[in-house]
């Protein structure tokens, strides 16, 4: 059994900062790449940022230079540092982990950016 739990969401002013966390637990000894996705009302879920087990990262163009994805040394907790967020970043943020051939998702955490 695998569980992914996101935390750190909430209300933030544009230009502020927020850090999201995603903690993986359960049968995760062969955890692989992890990623953050988001979904705004009326929109499809989209990739925000991803990080491999080796620490290689990639970002959506809309967040590059503002958001930073990282993992802890145990590779089981992932973070998303959101700097200078914009109102258009408002969405439910989900974490995803590949373990080892299946994708697992968290329940999501709401991020609301006020102007």
Q: Can you characterise this structure?
A:
By secondary structure, the protein is mainly beta. 0% of the residues lie in helices and 56% in strands. The chain has no helices and 11 strands. The protein has strands spanning 2-7, 10-13, 17-26, 34-39, 46-51, 57-59, 67-71, 77-83, 91-98, 103-105, 109-114. Strands 2, 4, 5, 6, 9, 10 and 11 form a 7-stranded mixed β-sheet that branches. The protein has a 4-stranded antiparallel β-sheet with strand order 1-3-8-7, with no helix packed on it. A hairpin with a 5-residue loop joins strand 7 (67-71) and strand 8 (77-83). It is globular, with a radius of gyration of 13 Å.
β content, as a range? over 45%
Number of strands: 11
What value does the Rg take, in angstroms? 13 Å
Mean pLDDT rating: 96
Question: What structural category characterises the helix and strand content?
Answer: mainly beta
Order of helices and strands: EEEEEEEEEEE
The major beta sheet can be summarized as: 7 strands, mixed
The number of helical segments is: 0
Parts with pLDDT < 50 across at least 5 consecutive residues: none
Estimate the helix proportion, in percent: under 10%
Tell me the overall shape: globular
What is the CA-CA span between the terminal residues? 40 Å
């Amino acid at each position: 059994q695998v569980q992914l739990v996101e935390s750190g969401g909430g209300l933030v002013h544009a230009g502020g900062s927020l850090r999201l966390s995603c903690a993986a637990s359960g049968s995760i000894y062969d955890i692989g790449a992890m990623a953050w996705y988001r979904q705004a009302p009326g929109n499809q879920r989209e990739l925000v940022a991803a990080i491999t087990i080796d620490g290689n990262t990639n970002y959506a163009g809309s967040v590059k230079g503002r958001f930073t994805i990282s993992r802890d040394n145990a590779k089981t907790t992932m973070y998303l540092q959101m700097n200078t967020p914009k109102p258009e970043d408002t969405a439910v943020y989900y974490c995803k982990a590949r373990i080892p051939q299946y994708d697992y998702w968290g329940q999501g955490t709401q991020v609301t950016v006020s102007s």
